[in-house]
Amino acid sequence: MLTGLRFTSICYKVSAIVSNVRGSIAKCENIYRVASLNCLYTPLDQRNYTTALTRHEFNILRKAATGGRGRRGTRVKKKAVDFNAAVDKFKWPGYNAPLESTKLGKRTSLSSTEEHQEDQPSFSPRVDNYRSTLKKDLGRGWTGFGWGGRSLGSPAAPDGTILDEFYSTCIELRRVTNQTSGGKRSRMRALVIVGNKNGAIGYAFGKGQDVRTALRKAKNRAVNYLCHVDRCDGHTIFHDIKTKYKKTHVKMEKRSKGEGLRCHRAITSICELAGIADLRAKVIGSTNPGNIIHAAFKALQCQETFQQLSDRTNLKVVEFRPENGYRPVVVASPSSGVALKSKKSRIIAPHHLEMDNI
C-alpha cells in the first residue's frame, strides 16, 4: 500500500503534467488563431500563388470580376460659353494687344465703343440671333422643357412651297434604336399633326439622325395624309363617340358653345388644329401618344351627321336645346330620293290585307 506522503507526491506530478499539457494546448490554439488571422487579412497583392500569372494580370482579372457589366458611362454635358461675359474696354498687352517693352503689364483704354465692338469675336452676334430666333419659333409647348405641344410653323410642299394656311404641332419626339448586324442604330422619331383650323387635319411620323430632320420630315409628310372632320355648328362634334385602338379607349362628349376643351393635351392639340372649340374627352387605358392620336382620328372620322342619320333612318331629326326652351327643332329631313325609295318599300301589297295574314 502507498503511504500518504508518496501518494501526495504522485498527485503533484500528475497535476504538473496536466498543467503543462493545458499550456501547450493553449499555445497551439493561439498560434492557429494568429495564423488564420494573418491569412484572412493578408492583402491580395501580397499573397503568393503558385501560378504563372503575374501581379498585373491578377489586377486585370480582379477589375473584371468586381466591375459591373453593361454600365453606361455618364454623358458629359458641354458647358455653355457666354462670349459677352466680363467684357471691358481695355487692351491688355500680351493678351489682346501686342506686348510693348515700355508699357509692360499696363492696360490702355480704347478710343471709342465702335473700336471695342470691332475687336469682339465675330460669332457672338450670330449666337445671340440664333438663340432668340429658336426661342421665338418653338414657343413653350406643354411643359416648357420637352418638344410636346410646340408649334413647328407651316409645312412645305414637295416643290418647296410653304403652305401658309396649315399649322403644325409636335406631339412626341423620342429616340428609337434598331439592332443591326453592325450594331445598334439610333435615330430620332417625331410625331407631328397638321391642320388648317377649318376641318382638315392629318398626322405622320418622321425619322432622322437629328431632331430637326425628324421634325421636318414628319411635318412635310403629314400634309399628304389629310382627312376631313365634320363639325356641328362649327364648334363641336355631332354626337358622343367611343372608340378603341389597341389598349387605348377614347370617349368624346358633345358640349355646348363656350364650354371649351376639357380633354387630354394631345386631343386638345388635334381639336385646335381641326377647328373644334368645345369638347370633353376621356382617355382610358394606355396613354401612348401614337395610340391616342390614332384613336382620336378614328373617333372624329366615324361621326354621323344629322343628314346622314336622317337618310339612314328615313326620319326627321329633331333637336331639343335649352336656349330654345327645349322646343323641338327640325335639323334634318330625309333626302327626296331616299324618301321616295323608302315610300315604295312601305307600300302594302293586296295579299297582305287578307284576314288570314293579319
TrEMBL record:
Gene3D superfamilies in the cross-refs: 3.30.160.20, 3.30.230.10
Pfam families per record: Ribosomal_S5 (PF00333), Ribosomal_S5_C (PF03719), Ribosomal_uS5m_N (PF21251)
Lineage: Eukaryota, Metazoa, Placozoa, Uniplacotomia, Trichoplacea
Record key words, sorted: Mitochondrion, Ribonucleoprotein, Ribosomal protein
Region of interest (Disordered), ranges: 106-130
Keyword presence, Ribonucleoprotein: yes
GO molecular-function term, one example from the UniProt record: RNA binding
Start and end residues of each S5 DRBM domain: 166-229
One term under GO cellular component: mitochondrial inner membrane
A single BP term in Gene Ontology: translation
Family assignment from sequence similarity: Belongs to the universal ribosomal protein uS5 family.
Location in or out of the cell: Mitochondrion
Chief location of this protein within or outside the cell: mitochondrion
Organism: Trichoplax adhaerens (Trichoplax reptans)
Protein known as: Small ribosomal subunit protein uS5m
